[in-house]
Every structure is written in structure tokens, then in C-alpha cells.
Amino acid sequence: MSPRPDPPDTLLLDEMFSPLIAASLVARGIDCQAAAAQPTLRSLDDHDVLEAALDAGRILVTNNVVDFEILRRRREAEGRPVPGFVYTSDGRFPRDRAFGGRLVAAL
Q: Where is the DUF5615 domain (predicted)?
């Protein structure tokens, strides 16, 4: 079995993720913020969330793969910078009681 890679340095959890997940990651030594916990980031459109992640030098963790891939590809085609992304899915991380723990362990 290959060694587990080091966790990312800084994360921004998209609004669909609970701030409790961010708190669990912080407790494990990962610099993580949750958009849902920050008034300036709540209810922003996807473009603005992407910009916030980029401005803060954070990797964006999102379940919204379709919309963010459109934005990412468009920006790359225009030669504009993009943040790093971690994409999740309901198939890999079903929204059940164990959801938060599985996501924290994976990140």
C-alpha cells in the first residue's frame, strides 16, 4: 500500500458543507474555512466563491463539480488563474450520519 499523501495546506469548503466539518479539519491541524460560516462568503455565486478561494490561496472543496468545471475550464482557456479543487460526490460521500466523518478522513 502506498503512503497517504500529505493533506492540502489550506482549504475552503463550499457552502453545502457544514462548518462542523471545517472545525474537525482544523482540530486535525488543517487550515480550513467553511463558506457557510462566513457572512462574506454565504450565498455568493460560484464565480465569487472561486475568486474568494483564489484570493485566499485556498483549495476549494465542492460537490458542485459541473458548475465549477465550467468555470475552471473557461478561466484556463482565457489564461486566468484558478484555485486548486477537491471535488466530492454524493456517490462517494453519501449524505448520511457518517458523511462528515468520512469526508474529514478523506481530506
A: 11-81
Q: Cell numbers for 90, please give them.
A: 454524493
Type and span of the H or E element at 3 = none
Give yes or no for residue 1 having a pLDDT over 50: no
Q: How far apart are CA 8 and CA 28, in angstroms?
A: 12
Tell me the angle at which helices 46-56 and 65-77 cross, rounded to the nearest 10 degrees: 60
**pTM score:** 0.87
CB atoms within 10 A of CB 98: 11
**CA 95 to chain CA mean position, Å:** 16
Distance CA 14, CA 34 (A): 7
pLDDT-derived band at 107 (thresholds 50, 70, 90) equals confident
- Is the CB of residue 52 less than 8 Å from the CB of residue 31? no
User: 33: which strand partners?
Assistant: 12
